[in-house]
Structures are given as structure tokens and as C-alpha cells.
Design brief:
595 residues, 13 strands, alpha+beta, 5-stranded mixed β-barrel
């Protein structure tokens, strides 16, 4: 004889609500502990609430290119600066144009002002130039090319097994006077290095791009060579002014001189050939730690065209002798690294040198987000107070408190005991929202501004609506004559579908708003989307399990007058089974003749 089948629990039933409540309790404790452990116990505030720094940048065009300061380039610069500032972990930053040639950057308090100024105005003009000569930072007399002498050869870093890493930059030896003289004389005769043997790069024209041609005026006639030789010899890289102005006005197709620091943090000066690769050929750049040395580096990935150019130049440089086997990575006129090339490289490379974590991340950030189409100078840096925003925040919080009080009064008056479930659920949702906002500040740079506060206030209504949907479904089941425990379980599937559809529409609206808008409106959309997701979590893991447990209590299960689930007040029908028995008894036996 077959064993009797166990009774099936009602649709949507939850046999162990304690597990869900324990899960959300653990999550709340973990998040709250993480907030206190991080030391950030309050959300970061935006510039309108906490004040901050306002930077005014003025666009400058190169001589003869005044038309470059136009609406298209200014809008492009705004987009790049905004991405750079957010790359610093500064969300809610405002970047906008003012007039024809000014850009205003508003950064919330808590940001390193010096670092922000460096990032927002840096043009990030990146070039890869072959090294023709290296000398000490201070000026030295240049003897004739016939003077003898040779420098000592430094150790050469080896490339990685993948061939993608040029190698860690080591201290480049200071050239002696005789070497400097020969290097200048020979380098200026051939601005771009040529291979001394068969190149390992592809021989097809598409694989080996043609190097930029030097204009006739700069193809090293005696006067130009002498001028560049004098400039290199007299350059003093210990002078900050000379370091910043030495490369101004030099075209990428012209040889130039520049300054840079070596691995032991000493300044050196470089004589460089025409640029072979520029920053537009870099597809991505990220700071990382070299697993071999433990030093900070910047990993670069080149575009398809950039890979071919980089392969061509490294193929040529790998066959040269020192220092002509080096290429200089020149950023805004300064040599940030000058690694030696021992083999042909192509798709990727590493910039290594005397980086720390901050400098490596800064360089990767600038290279990743691109070069500004214009040169900018800082006109002013002002401190913005939060007096106006503080008044608006106070008014907003008062409005939110009034709205929340009205919601609670309505819940208590209409739902009575059920209002306890709603209020506790609102409290859990508020706690999770606050803790997550506090954690998102140091994590992704989220800053709470006035529109974000509005989004949080709107979320009160969205969350309360979910509870009301569930409560009304339970009441509908009670009106049909069911007792509370099966009513709670049978009402959940229908309420769940309605809640999910409603929250999906709200989240979709928030996502679209976040994508298509900029600035402060994104703060509203982000907060609205976050609180909508938390509404789903709270309803599933707190409200429903709590309601299941309360249905087992005498106060709610027997329909106390103040429980909000009194069958008489709801106009419930008699219990289904009892009503069927009563109907059958009243009808009595049926007379066959009458049938």
C-alpha cells in the first residue's frame, strides 16, 4: 500500500522565514561594520551641500591656429575633463563651458585641490620619440666631435617573455663631453634612427608605416643643427622654468630637446628625434604593479594602427647602440620614461620608471581618457561655500520628514497593526540606503547632492507602495473567507508580480535618466535606482518573512480589531468549508420525485 502523500504547502509558501530574516540581518551588520571600519560614517556631500573648489580654465590656441578655439573642441574638452575628474574618484563634479573660451570645473570638498588642478588642465600630448643623445641636467660645453671618450654602459633591462614590456627604466648614465659632441653631430645628421641590419618588423607597406617627414625648414641644415645643438648644450633641466618651456612650439615632426627624471630621481636632458607614435595610438592605459620587480608601472595597449607604428620604431631601435636604442615617452614636453629596446614590440608596452601608486594612476588616467584638443591655463581657483546648499538641504529634509510623517499617519490609521510591518520595513530600507551611500563615497566617489536627496525622498513612496500592494492582496484573500496563514501565502505570488513590475519600471526610468543626463540629474537617477533595488531586497527578505511569522501569532492570526486584519471590518465571507457544509445541511435530502 502506497504511503500517503504529504500535504503540499500553499503556493508561494515560505516554510522557513527565519532564514531570510537572518540573511538580511547579517547583511545589515556586515555593511554597518564595514562603514565604521572604513572610517566613513557619513555620506560624502556634493559641492552644493558641502562646498568645494571651483576652477576656471581659459583655452589657448597655438599661434596661427586661433580657429581651434571653437564650440566642437570646447565640448570635447569638457567631456575629457569630466572623465578625468571622475577618474580621480570625484563623482558629482560639474564641468561646463562659460562663454567662448572658458571652462568651469566645480569639485566637491574632500578632493586634493592640487591634484585636481593638475588633472583637469593637463593637455596630455603624448609622443614616442627616439633618443639621440642624453646628458647631465646642468649645461656643459660641447667639444668638437674629434674628442675621444666613451661612457660606461649601464645594465640593460630585459623585455618580458611576452615581448610587451620594454623594461624597467634604470638610471641612464651621464654622457661625457666627447660622447655628447659626437651624438649631437651624428644625430642631427639623421633625426630618425634607421636599422643597421634586417628589421624584424613586417616588410609590407601596411605593416611598417612611413615615418613622418621633416619639413624642409627643419631637415638639419647647418644653421638649424647649430641652433638645436646650442639649445641642448645650454639647457638647464634644474631650472623649473626651462623645463616647462623648452619644448613649446616644437612640431611633432621636428627634433627637439626635453628634460626627464631617471630611476634615481635625477634630472637629465635629452636630444630627441621626430615623433614616431603619438598618444592617439594608445587604446588603453592602466596602473599596475610589475610582478617581477614590485614597482608601479603603466600598462599600455595600442590601437591597430598604433601597434604597427610601435612595431616599426622598436624594430629599428633594437638594432641601434646606446643611447640610440632608447625611445623617450614624452608627455607635455617632459620625458616620463626612456626605456631601452632589445627586441621588436607591437601591441602593448609598459611605461616604467620612478613611479609610485599615485603617479602611475595619474598617468594611466590621463592617457586612458585622451588628450585635450586645446591648451588651457588656470585663470582662478576659488573656494565655494555651502551656505545656500545647506539652507536648501534643511528645507528638503523638513519636506521629507513631513512626507514620511504623513505616510506613517496614513498607515497607522488605515492598516493599524500592519503599519508596524511597514514602518519596520521602511526603517530597514533607510538604514541600508544610508550605509551603502556612506560606503560608496570612498569606493566610487559617490557624492550626495540635492537632487540625490530628492531621489531618496521619492523612494519613500515607492517603498511604501510595495507594502500596500501586499497588504491589499492579503485582505482580498481574507474577504474570500480564508484564514490569515493561508491568506499570507496565497497573496504573495500575485503581490510579488505586481511589485516586480512596478520596481522594474522605476529602475528602468532611473537607468535611462542616468544614461542620457549629466551632472546633478545623474545623482537623482542614481539614488532612485539604488533605492528601487533595495525595495526589492527588503520586500523579499524582510517584509514577506516578517508577515509569515506574524501570521502565526494570536494577535494577527485571530484577526484582532487593531491588527488591521479583522475579518468583520473587512466584510469577509464565512469560511469556505463551513459555508459549504451549512449550505448542504440547509438544503436537506432531495426528493427523487421532485428531482
Amino acid at each position: 500500500m502506497a504511503a500517503p502523500k504529504k500535504g503540499r504547502r500553499p503556493a508561494g509558501g515560505q516554510s522557513r522565514p527565519g532564514r531570510a530574516l537572518a540573511l538580511i540581518l547579517i547583511a545589515m551588520v556586515a555593511l554597518t561594520g564595514g562603514m565604521f571600519w572604513s572610517g566613513h560614517t557619513t555620506p560624502r556631500l556634493g559641492i552644493d551641500l558641502a562646498g568645494g573648489t571651483s576652477i576656471t580654465l581659459k583655452a589657448k590656441a597655438d599661434p596661427g591656429q586661433e580657429s581651434a578655439v571653437n564650440e566642437t573642441n570646447m565640448n570635447t574638452a569638457v567631456g575629457i575633463i569630466e572623465r578625468r575628474v571622475n577618474g580621480l574618484g570625484v563623482s558629482e563634479a560639474e564641468v561646463q563651458t562659460q562663454g567662448r573660451e572658458n571652462i568651469i570645473v566645480n569639485i566637491p570638498r574632500g578632493t586634493d585641490e592640487k591634484q585636481a588642478r593638475k588633472q583637469v588642465g593637463t593637455t596630455a600630448q603624448l609622443y614616442f620619440r627616439p633618443v639621440l643623445a642624453v646628458a647631465a641636467a646642468a649645461p656643459q660645453p660641447v667639444p668638437s666631435a674629434g674628442t675621444t671618450g666613451s661612457p660606461s654602459a649601464p645594465p640593460k633591462p630585459s623585455a618580458s617573455a611576452s615581448g610587451a614590456t620594454v623594461g624597467e627604466k634604470s638610471a641612464t648614465p651621464t654622457a661625457t663631453a666627447s660622447t655628447q659632441g659626437r651624438a649631437l653631430t651624428e644625430a642631427l645628421k639623421a633625426p630618425s634612427p634607421t636599422p643597421t641590419g634586417s628589421a624584424s618588423s613586417p616588410s609590407s607597406p601596411s605593416a611598417t608605416p612611413k615615418a613622418p617627414e621633416t619639413p624642409p625648414a627643419t631637415q638639419t641644415p647647418d644653421a638649424s643643427s647649430a641652433a638645436l645643438e646650442k639649445k641642448f648644450s645650454t639647457l638647464n633641466c634644474l631650472d623649473p622654468k626651462q623645463r616647462t618651456t623648452v619644448g613649446q612650439g616644437v612640431l611633432p615632426t621636428e627634433p627637439t630637446v626635453a628634460c626627464g627624471k631617471n630611476a634615481i630621481d635625477q634630472w637629465e636632458k635629452y636630444l630627441l628625434g621626430p615623433a614616431e607614435v603619438d598618444g592617439k595610438d594608445v587604446d588603453d592605459a592602466q596602473a599596475a604593479i610589475d610582478q617581477r620587480t614590485g614597482q608601479w608601472i603603466v600598462d599600455m595597449e595600442f590601437t591597430s594602427a598604433g601597434s604597427k607604428k610601435f612595431q616599426s620604431i622598436t624594430s629599428k631601435l633594437s638594432q641601434q647602440t646606446e643611447p640610440q636604442n632608447q625611445f623617450a615617452i614624452v608627455l607635455d614636453g617632459e620625458v616620463v620614461s626612456a626605456p631601452r629596446v632589445q627586441t621588436t614590440l607591437s601591441a602593448s608596452a609598459q611605461i616604467s620608471g620612478s613611479f609610485n601608486q599615485q603617479s602611475a594612476q595619474d598617468l594611466g588616467n590621463i592617457l586612458s581618457y585622451g588628450a585635450l584638443p586645446l591648451t588651457f591655463e588656470t585663470q582662478s581657483v576659488d573656494t565655494v561655500t555651502a551656505a545656500l546648499g545647506g539652507d536648501q538641504l534643511e528645507a528638503g529634509l523638513i519636506a521629507g520628514a513631513i512626507g514620511l510623517a504623513l505616510v506613517i499617519i496614513y498607515l497607522v490609521a488605515y492598516y493599524r497593526g500592519l503599519s508596524l510591518v511597514a514602518i519596520l520595513s521602511l526603517g530597514v530600507s533607510a538604514l541600508l540606503t544610508y550605509v551603502i551611500m556612506a560606503l560608496l563615497g570612498p569606493a566610487i566617489g559617490f557624492a550626495l547632492n540635492l537632487p540625490a536627496v530628492c531621489g531618496a525622498i521619492v523612494a519613500i513612496g515607492i517603498t511604501a507602495d510595495s507594502f500596500i500592494v501586499y497588504f491589499e492582496r492579503i485582505r482580498d484573500e481574507l474577504r474570500e473567507g480564508r484564514t490569515l496563514r493561508p491568506a499570507v501565502e496565497r497573496a504573495w505570488p500575485r503581490a510579488r508580480r505586481t511589485i516586480m513590475v512596478s520596481d522594474f519600471v522605476s529602475f528602468l526610468a532611473a537607468a535611462v535618466l542616468f544614461i542620457v543626463t549629466v551632472g546633478k540629474v545623474q545623482g537623482f537617477a542614481f539614488t532612485l535606482g539604488l533605492t528601487t533595488l533595495l525595495d526589492v531586497v527588503v520586500v523579499f527578505l524582510f517584509t514577506k518573512p516578517l508577515m509569515t511569522l506574524l501570521a502565526r501569532t494570536k494577535f494577527f492570526g485571530e484577526g484582532h480589531a487593531w491588527s488591521g486584519l479583522d475579518p468583520k471590518r473587512l466584510g469577509a465571507k464565512p469560511p469556505l468549508r463551513s459555508s459549504r457544509r451549512a449550505t448542504a445541511s440547509a438544503a436537506g435530502p432531495v426528493d427523487p420525485k421532485e428531482a
